[in-house]
Amino acid sequence: MKIRALLIAAAAALATAAAPALAGAATLPTQERLPLSIGHVDAVAPSWADGRLTIGLHDDSGENGSVERDPGEVLLHAKPESEVEIPAGIDPAFYAVWGPAGSKVWLLPQTQNPDLLWAGWSSETIPDGTFSGNAITWRLLSVSGPGWLKIFDDSPFGLPQMKLDGSGPLPVSTEMRTATHAHFNWLFSAKGLYRIRFEVSATPAGADGPVSSGPVEYRAFVGDLVDLPDDPIAPELSIAGLHGSYAPGEQVELSAVQSPQGELDHYHWFARCGSATDFAEVGGGAAYAFTAAVEQDGCDYRVTLYDATHTPVATSPTVTLHVAAPAEQPPVEQPPAVVPPIEQPPVVTPPAVDPPAIRRPTGVTAKLSLTARAATTRGRRLAVGVRLGATARVTVEVRRGDRVLTRPATATVRAGTRSLRIRLRKPLTRGRYRVVVTARADGRVVTRTLTLRVR
Length: 455
Hints:
Layout: H1 3-10, E1 34-36, E2 39-49, E3 52-59, E4 67-69, E5 74-78, E6 83-85, H2 92-95, E7 104-108, E8 117-122, E9 135-144, E10 149-154, E11 160-165, E12 172-177, E13 181-183, E14 185-188, E15 192-202, E16 211-212, E17 216-222, E18 236-240, E19 251-259, E20 266-272, E21 280-284, E22 287-291, E23 300-306, E24 312-315, E25 319-320, E26 370-378, E27 381-388, E28 392-400, E29 403-404, E30 409-413, E31 416-423, E32 431-441, E33 444-454
Parallel strand pairs: 1-5, 2-8, 5-17
Antiparallel strand pairs: 2-3, 3-4, 6-7, 7-14, 8-13, 9-12, 9-15, 10-11, 10-14, 15-16, 15-17, 18-19, 19-22, 20-21, 20-23, 23-24, 23-25, 26-27, 27-31, 28-29, 28-30, 28-32, 32-33
């Protein structure tokens, strides 16, 4: 007999408990959260809107239909009736992930039981084609509590197929598809309160690298709600000190800020650069300082606060470092070499008649040079810094690969340092672009190209 049938039969007689009302806040102390004890929820529900990847929770457990909730508002509840004793005498292949025979675990099952919480995954709001390979990476970052959490499903033959194993080293990850709705077994090894941190990431179609939701904390309780402990709200964490852009060699100084400020002061800093999909630890302490380099352009940074047991308490939103490449300098022209004249015997010639003076047009006698500085965009506005050696006709284009994405903007610009502001037909989507600046004057043409990264 398969383990699924035995385990579900062992958890058959269940009682329904009334849930207390929800306090109206986005992130709440555990005691003030809405317990979800029975019915269907899509506990991890990523969504994509306005270039941002986020995690929400679809709650279908109530009488008012589907409700969209913040994970920080709810408490996932495994009732006492979810307790299961691992039976003996069954092929170990079926229950190896559960534990030894005779031990007790608490199961929120993959197959719906109307008297237990039925927790699923939903990426149904994200259509295929949104992300590269139609793939979303789901990570279990940390599990803090009295035991472990394992998330897995059953094969058609009843064998467990692990998705996220929280009993070993973390983080661990699994890949899910877009436009998908699925359910899994959520298995807890002990009663008590758990803090569970998830993260999802994906690479938008046509983009250079992945985007992330950042860590999102869930709280789950196993047992009778009368035993729910006091658990005050954790401080919010943010990063201060980041400038809009840095030059290579400039000092970067980041600081962790708690709100409200508490007694905890144990921080770790993490970075994700280039094609990396996971964050790596880069330092510790309330401040993190380093020297900016071109290779760090686009690197993401975040900081995590830990308690005395080295359990994560809060993690900041991710910030992105921008390092501008050195501006291209115009070539330095050397004056012609002076050759001393060779003395010749005097030659008597008739008086010469001076030709009429040629008057050159005003404004083109200066040497045409062009230096293009950093390009930035906000909404439909593009700003480009330039320095001209002479008044010129300047054209600005935005390109991606070989495609020109915007209608060229052309204007006469006087010599000196200027900030060109161009209104785009529509905002640029996330990705890497080239901004091509061309200056024309007195028959000469000079072109400079900048890299623009939109996040």
